[in-house]
Design a protein that fits this description.
Length: about 290
């Protein structure tokens, strides 16, 4: 495996033909520990590339003040500079709105140019790739996403991807059945941690939450009900994500690859606890699509 270290990302090349596996949020997080390395998407992309292809893995945090979010459109210089104070002020609502729209903020013109160069170089690696492209991303562990272990969001070759999802659900059905009790316990453990944080906040006035509370009681109750109503796990096809934002970025960079392009939204549970299973599933899906 050849490793190229670039500013803001790393490129792993197996020297064998295969897809490019992109992990855009693989770098550490400093303000939100729950976002750290997108729960092993770096590992998943690298392990997939070992079987053939390349892995493009971000090494710069997605947090707008410190780094670059490759999954958002780039701002112009005026926008990046004018919104730096928004992030210094701590106004959560305004920061959230900006994060949904743009990839970074900058303290000055030089910082903007550096981040802009990193961003363009990252996307140039994808633009110049005449091979299938697989974006590996993490979907949060919450009731809206259940029972999805992996949400497959293709941008072309949709019929083949839909067939692959159906086939892999059959192939991995027994594993998913055996995994469900572990999944339930994982949810119970996460619930216990959140309730403990609430107790510490109420009793000792120590704030252990970062940003908005990741779970509230209503969400916990909703998740519990969904697991009772749907006591199973599966690979889903465009259930939780539509790929709208990524589609816009692909169009902006004029990426019109005839080869398969797909976004693989790996559940937080699978990526954190069993990333190797994610590697097997994604690899099998791509083998089916590339036949």
């Amino acid at each position: 495996m050849e490793v190229l270290i670039k500013r803001g990302y790393m490129l792993f090349d197996s020297g064998k033909a295969g897809p490019m596996y992109v992990a855009p949020h693989a770098a550490p997080a400093y303000e939100k520990p729950g976002d750290h390395q997108d729960h092993n998407t770096h590992f998943i992309a690298y392990r997939l590339a070992l079987n053939g292809g390349r892995a493009l893995v971000s090494s710069i945090t997605r947090e707008r003040v410190f780094g670059v979010d490759f999954y958002k459109p780039s701002p112009d210089m005026k926008t990046a500079l004018s919104h730096y104070k928004t992030f210094e002020s701590g106004r959560i609502g305004e920061k959230r709105k900006y994060r949904k729209k743009y990839a970074w903020v900058a303290r000055n013109r030089d910082e903007h140019k550096i981040k802009n160069t990193i961003y363009n170089n990252f996307w140039s690696e994808i633009m110049n790739c005449d091979c299938p492209v697989v974006f590996v991303h993490r979907q949060f562990f919450n009731p809206v996403r259940h029972p999805s272990l992996l949400d497959v969001v293709p941008f072309n070759h949709r019929k083949k991807f839909r067939e692959a999802v159906k086939k892999m659900n059959g192939k991995y059905r027994k594993i998913f059945e055996d995994l469900f009790p572990v999944y339930r316990k994982s949810f119970e453990f996460k619930t216990a941690c959140v309730l403990f944080k609430e107790m510490v906040l109420n009793e000792y006035k120590l704030r252990l939450f970062h940003g908005r509370k990741p779970f509230i009681r209503k969400r916990i109750e909703k998740f519990s009900r969904k697991m009772e109503e749907m006591p199973y796990l599966e690979i889903t096809y465009m259930k939780n994500f539509s790929g709208t934002l990524l589609k816009m970025i692909l169009a902006r960079h004029n990426i019109k690859n005839r080869k398969p392009i797909v976004q693989m939204e790996v559940s937080e549970f699978l990526a954190r606890r069993f990333p190797d299973i994610a590697v097997y599933i994604i690899s099998d899906i791509m083998k089916h699509v590339r036949k």
